[in-house]
Amino acid sequence: MVSITNAPPAKVLIPEKVSPDGLQALRDAGLDLHEKHGLSADELLKIIPDYDALIVRSETKVTADVLNAAKKLKVVARAGVGVDNVDVSAATKLGVIVVNSPSGNINAAAEHTIALMMAVARHIGEACPSLKAGKWERSKFVGVELKGKTLAIVGAGKVGLTVARIANGFGMNIIAYDPYANRALAAAASVTLKDTLDELLPAADFFTIHTPLIASTKGMISATELAKMKPTARILNVARGGMIDEAALLEALNAGKIGGAGLDVFASEPPQPDSVTEQLIRHPKVVATPHLGASTVEAQENVSIDVCEQVISILAGNLPRSAVNAPLILPEEYRTLQPFVLLVERMGSLYTQHYGSNLRVGGKDFRTTFDLTYEGSLASLNTTKPLFAALVKGLLAPISAPEDVTVNLVNAELVAKERGILINEQRSRENEEEGFSSFVTLRARISRSASHAREQAAAAAAGGPPPVRDQIIQGYVSANTPYISRIGRFRADFQLGGNLLICRNFDSCGRIGFVGGKLGKANVNISFMSVAPLEHSAPGDGNDEALMILGVDKTIDEATVQSLIGDEGVLEASVITL
Ligand SMILES: NC(=O)c1ccc[n+]([C@@H]2O[C@H](COP(=O)([O-])OP(=O)(O)OC[C@H]3O[C@@H](n4cnc5c(N)ncnc54)[C@H](O)[C@@H]3O)[C@@H](O)[C@H]2O)c1
Ligand SMILES: O=C(O)[C@H](O)COP(=O)(O)O
């Protein structure tokens, strides 16, 4: 029972069809349930002030107006993954927790992918209506088998690897591209990980996408990628619309350059009349479903139970499992910990964006084993759980949609484990006595990856010592603001926030002017510039590299970044958004 006082039981509004299994748990907890399906926006606005909790799927628009009108609301629960229909930032401002169910429909989405793959392979989409129209067209619909074919997966996460496990049963050869994949889980699913998307394209008989829709995946399959695929290749998307350029896919299908497609998700849902999306859906080589990936009885039970349990937990004053917007710290820790939570979260995000950047041609060198060392006064903290959670959140944020990975105090360890991330926390008391600022050091260690094995072998063959390639980021807090004091081999000092451009260059005349000129041409405003020299170098000692860190007013597009690299310009550049 949630309500143990004489106060009336908390009220829960359910304006959409949510599976009854979870709702029973709410009743058992003594909550007062109101299932009112089909409310108009005005009706919702009128009755919401009465409710403590709101449970929705994707149809109810939980706008800022609704949230502002809701005087008692403590939680909005989305029975599913996507929270596109909830104004999460308005909810956060008002202290309303938004929870979802990031795992409840994985199997359903994976099985739907397999269903589309088989439907496309055997022309089920066309053959069924043909037969229903009274035709008997056997020779027109000769298909292909899955056995022995190559299935290429982009995004070897929860859904991607579930698809791989099922496809193994068909005798398919499975390759995947995911620079952040849990290598052990991928190997256990018999998936061969490739370093670049380009390696997948010409090899794929079936090509399926299971990434979040984020900056690095938006439009990731364009005319250029399609042109590199076999004309017989079949493309599947049960993740999110927007990852495939729909106009390019339509053109490739019409030109016979792609064999077919199975699509569950679209750039706009439902599609606009006469839009490219609609033409694609109507195309004879396309099998299409109206976003049914999660629409199974079992998945709906799972997500319903998952979010209803969280509603019970929140109304009882506890932290939920999967809050999209839960704070990483408890109110009583806020003053002391918040600046460091921000620092560590941003260090994690900087790590992923800086060391894992250049995704489309393969992440540079992303690792998953970390030492997180607290120095100075931080070393005597009673609990570092919020800092651990902040690191997991920061590492994953640039490669996830916010609703796909919800990291908080309750689930941080579990999420890290699922993603194959290993974090060893250490305390160093060296600077404690001097009242010195608290430093945090993030050291990414080499795990036994294929590229590492190759490097070790090359070094051994050349008779040299094994290469040391630890990646280090160090930061501190001053006046509640996070700063970076070291990146890799470079001594730095810059504020960690906003949009940054980090360039590695030879420390010679003209580089700063060159980069400034290119950014000026691209209409990018520079707010600060900081040079980070090598940590152990002296003038004229031949160690002449430096980092150039620029604060800029907007994210810089890929073409501009590429234009910076070259003999006149810089060796490497990464764009960071914090
Ligand atoms: N159609 C549906 O009804 C339905 C149902 C469930 C999930 N989904 C969608 O399926 C997608 C996958 O869900 P999930 O639970 O497997 O997510 P997940 O977070 O477990 O896996 C996503 C994977 O994508 C990888 N990734 C991120 N950026 C990448 C990039 N640029 N290139 C290659 N890989 C990259 C990540 O490392 C991760 O391993 C999400 O978009 C989710 O919203 C759709
Ligand atoms: O985000 C999700 O959970 C899936 O895309 C399914 O959404 P749905 O609950 O609207 O079917």
UniProtKB/TrEMBL annotation:
<dbReference type="GO" id="GO:0006564">
    <property type="term" value="P:L-serine biosynthetic process"/>
</dbReference>
<dbReference type="InterPro" id="IPR029753">
    <property type="entry name" value="D-isomer_DH_CS"/>
</dbReference>
<keyword id="KW-0560">Oxidoreductase</keyword>
<dbReference type="GO" id="GO:0004617">
    <property type="term" value="F:phosphoglycerate dehydrogenase activity"/>
</dbReference>
<dbReference type="InterPro" id="IPR006140">
    <property type="entry name" value="D-isomer_DH_NAD-bd"/>
</dbReference>
<comment type="subunit">
    <text>Homotetramer.</text>
</comment>
<feature type="domain" description="D-isomer specific 2-hydroxyacid dehydrogenase NAD-binding">
    <location>
        <begin position="114"/>
        <end position="293"/>
    </location>
</feature>
<protein>
    <recommendedName>
        <fullName>D-3-phosphoglycerate dehydrogenase</fullName>
        <ecNumber>1.1.1.95</ecNumber>
    </recommendedName>
</protein>
<dbReference type="InterPro" id="IPR029009">
    <property type="entry name" value="ASB_dom_sf"/>
</dbReference>
<dbReference type="GO" id="GO:0051287">
    <property type="term" value="F:NAD binding"/>
</dbReference>
<keyword id="KW-0597">Phosphoprotein</keyword>
<comment type="pathway">
    <text>Amino-acid biosynthesis; L-serine biosynthesis; L-serine from 3-phospho-D-glycerate: step 1/3.</text>
</comment>
<feature type="domain" description="D-isomer specific 2-hydroxyacid dehydrogenase catalytic">
    <location>
        <begin position="12"/>
        <end position="325"/>
    </location>
</feature>
<feature type="domain" description="D-3-phosphoglycerate dehydrogenase ASB">
    <location>
        <begin position="337"/>
        <end position="446"/>
    </location>
</feature>
<dbReference type="Pfam" id="PF02826">
    <property type="entry name" value="2-Hacid_dh_C"/>
</dbReference>
<keyword id="KW-0520">NAD</keyword>
<dbReference type="InterPro" id="IPR045626">
    <property type="entry name" value="PGDH_ASB_dom"/>
</dbReference>
<dbReference type="InterPro" id="IPR006139">
    <property type="entry name" value="D-isomer_2_OHA_DH_cat_dom"/>
</dbReference>
<dbReference type="InterPro" id="IPR006236">
    <property type="entry name" value="PGDH"/>
</dbReference>
<dbReference type="Pfam" id="PF00389">
    <property type="entry name" value="2-Hacid_dh"/>
</dbReference>
<keyword id="KW-0007">Acetylation</keyword>
<dbReference type="InterPro" id="IPR045865">
    <property type="entry name" value="ACT-like_dom_sf"/>
</dbReference>
<dbReference type="InterPro" id="IPR029752">
    <property type="entry name" value="D-isomer_DH_CS1"/>
</dbReference>
<keyword id="KW-0028">Amino-acid biosynthesis</keyword>
<comment type="similarity">
    <text>Belongs to the D-isomer specific 2-hydroxyacid dehydrogenase family.</text>
</comment>
<keyword id="KW-0718">Serine biosynthesis</keyword>
<dbReference type="InterPro" id="IPR036291">
    <property type="entry name" value="NAD(P)-bd_dom_sf"/>
</dbReference>
<dbReference type="Pfam" id="PF19304">
    <property type="entry name" value="PGDH_inter"/>
</dbReference>
